[in-house]
Q: What sequence folds into this?
């Protein structure tokens, strides 16, 4: 459940971060666009009036009155904005008007005008000025928007700090309450595991009795088809019970596992030898790419079970006269083990589900081959306990199980998960 709590907290952190990031992004974009629109309106007015604001006379011409009302111009408008105008002819500066600004000199104005003339856009931003080029390129108006930019930057900074504080606060608060949130899941998982354990133990006794009675009947009345069926099915149920108990015990390991040096090369070779007769009976070619004495730190019993599950799986589903390939490699971070067997694959099957309990693709894996659909779930759990992973990858002629196991576990102590 610790892993579930951690995933919940991470999900809340990422969700809160995404929401606040989108909010800041949308707000900043809207404010920037609003400021640019307002600045473009002013520069447009200045260009139309040859670098100055129109005289506010509400009794003047109808078109002037309409312009004044449209842009909310007043007698104070010329004093609210800082701007300068550069007049041009054939791309050369002929005059400048800097009566409405005091922080720039003539050289800067001339350079700014030449720069914007080389740009393709009629309007834009250069330094802290929003510019507009007249259609006939006879003048360029530069409007100081430093205050608006400063306000936008301040708003962005404040929103970012507040958002970061809220994300941290939300994450911390949820970290405390997550225990209560996952409690129903934890209780449900505990009850499920307890049920599996209790049911498995309860099944052991009647299965043992049925098996013993079948042996008595066989001894008393001789071999028969029905007695053989009883024996086969009781063995199958006993195997299922044992696998359920094994998986249940592995899933209960949440804090630590015993770690010691394990010769993985020896385990893989020995397991392959144990199934040699099965492979031979199917005329299967077994290819091994296993380096000598490849040793990692792990739990020897669990790793032996992992290898046994995968090799047994290959022996069951390999095609007649097919091939099984076993390989083992090690890099700085992981040990990579691949067990491939030729097989008839179902094109519509999703082999990522193979590690779920009792899952079987319809065509390629049926109960006729034996097994209970639990072995691969056990294998995945063992891989996870060793900070690794396992995947089933369909290939051209068959199916490959690729296992990654951590090569960095420390021996001589229990590994905390």
A:
């Amino acid at each position: 459940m610790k892993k579930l709590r951690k995933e919940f907290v991470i999900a809340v952190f990422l969700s809160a971060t995404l929401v606040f990031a989108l909010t800041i992004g949308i707000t900043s974009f809207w404010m920037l666009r609003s400021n640019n629109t307002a600045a473009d309106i002013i520069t447009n007015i200045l260009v139309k009036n040859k670098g100055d604001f129109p005289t506010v006379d509400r009794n003047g011409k109808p078109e002037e009155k309409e312009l004044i009302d449209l842009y909310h111009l007043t007698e104070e408008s010329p004093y609210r904005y800082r701007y300068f105008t550069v007049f041009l002819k054939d791309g050369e500066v002929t005059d400048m008007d800097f009566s409405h600004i005091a922080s720039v000199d003539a050289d800067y104005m001339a350079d700014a005008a030449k720069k914007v003339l080389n740009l393709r856009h009629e309007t834009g931003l250069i330094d802290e000025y929003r510019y507009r080029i007249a259609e006939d390129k006879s003048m360029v108006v530069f409007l100081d928007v430093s205050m608006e930019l400063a306000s936008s930057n301040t708003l962005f900074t404040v929103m970012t700090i507040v958002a970061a504080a809220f994300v941290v606060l939300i994450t911390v608060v949820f970290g405390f309450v997550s225990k209560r949130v996952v409690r129903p899941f934890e209780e449900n998982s505990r009850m499920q595991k307890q049920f599996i354990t209790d049911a498995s133990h309860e099944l052991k006794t009647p299965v043992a009795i049925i098996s013993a009675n079948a042996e008595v009947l066989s001894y008393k009345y001789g071999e028969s088809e029905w007695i053989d069926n009883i024996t086969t099915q009781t063995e199958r149920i006993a195997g299922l019970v044992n696998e359920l108990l094994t998986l249940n015990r592995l899933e209960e390991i949440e804090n630590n596992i015993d770690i010691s040096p394990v010769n993985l090369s020896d385990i893989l070779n020995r397991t392959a030898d144990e199934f040699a007769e099965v492979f031979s009976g199917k005329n299967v070619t077994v290819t091994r790419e296993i380096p000598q004495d490849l040793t990692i730190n792990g739990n020897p019993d669990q790793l032996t079970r992992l290898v046994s599950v995968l090799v047994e799986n290959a022996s069951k589903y390999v095609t007649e006269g097919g091939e099984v390939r076993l390989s083992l490699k090690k890099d700085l971070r992981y040990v990579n083990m691949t067990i491939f067997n030729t097989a008839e694959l179902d094109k519509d099957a999703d082999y990522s589900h193979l590690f779920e309990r009792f899952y079987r693709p319809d065509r390629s894996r049926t109960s006729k081959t034996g097994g209970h659909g639990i072995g691969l779930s056990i294998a995945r759990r063992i891989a996870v306990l060793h900070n690794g992973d396992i995947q089933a990858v369909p290939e051209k002629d068959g199916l490959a199980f690729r296992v990654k196991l951590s090569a960095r576990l420390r021996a001589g102590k229990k590994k905390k998960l």
